[in-house]
Amino acid sequence: MMRTKQQTKSRFCTHRRCCVLVLLVLVCLEASGCSLGVMAGKLFFGDPLLTCEFTKRTNVDLSEEQKKVLVICSTPESIRSDYPSLNYDLLEQITYDLKRQGIEVQDTGEVATWLDDNGGVWNDVDELAENFKVDYIIHVDIDEFDYREPNSPNLLRGKTFGTVAAYEVHEVDGIRRALSVFESDYTSEYPSHMPVSIEQESAKVFRKKYLDRIADQIGRFFYNYHSSEDIY
Fold first, then answer.
1. What is the pLDDT of residues 52-99, one digit of tens each?
2. How far is CA 144 from CA 71, 75, 86, 187, 207, in A?
3. Which of 3, 63, 214, 231 lies in the 20 to 30 Å Cα band around 186?
């Protein structure tokens, strides 16, 4: 049985009203900061893939283009005296996260061995470019790090500040050189609302969890991820 023009018009109006209502609900939920707005958005529009900052600035997708990367971390002496293993712990975890996303990364053992052979220090990224056959060098420079609340030995809260940079390696006249292609400040505070008591979680467990969090956040500068994978 064929629909009349009036029935067709009525169905169209009903459909339009439903669409407008859904959009209004989404806007209201988003404006209120409610996570339901995010959930509703995913329900109607899917889980979008977010482009990482490195790809936005360079148009290079490290996982798709099979570029080999070297990760290096550095901290001032004031931090190394309190946390002597911090550089290697971050190096290892960031490398693990990048590999998990399909990015080829220089073996951490080879990087650590080279650093040990050179007294644990390196002068500049060109020196790294000369000694490792990689396409990019990621340098994580941590200026401040702590996971203990100041003047409160029983409270834990992670705070970190530093710079994340990336260099593309080129060969010029037979000499390998590293050219800067990406740089961004990095700041972290966790948890932001209130510290954690050592009665709830030991300092050792909290430190490991916080280092994993830092590595995840830094890794996301260099690989795309879905909005549902946001770190809170």
1. 999 999 999 999 998 999 999 999 988 988 999 999 999 999 999 999
2. 19, 8, 12, 9, 15
3. 63
- Token couple for 216: 């995840």
CA distances from 66 to 3, 69, 88, 180, 197 (A): 57, 9, 24, 19, 44
Q: Note whether 28 and 116 are same-domain residues.
A: no
Q: Contact, 74 vs 139, CB < 8 A?
A: yes
First to last CA, the chain: 55
On whether the CB atoms of residues 163 and 183 are closer than 8 A, the answer is yes
How many CB atoms within 10 Å of residue 219?
A: 24
Q: What's the pTM value of the predicted model, to 2 decimals?
A: 0.78
- Whether 133 and 175 map to the same domain: the answer is yes
Amino acid at 181: V
Rounded Cα distance between 45 and 79, Å, is 45
The residue segments making up the domain with residue 162 are 49-229
Instruction: Look up tokens 């290096």; give the residue.
Output: 72
Domain count within the chain: 2
Residues 15 and 41 occupy one common structural domain: yes
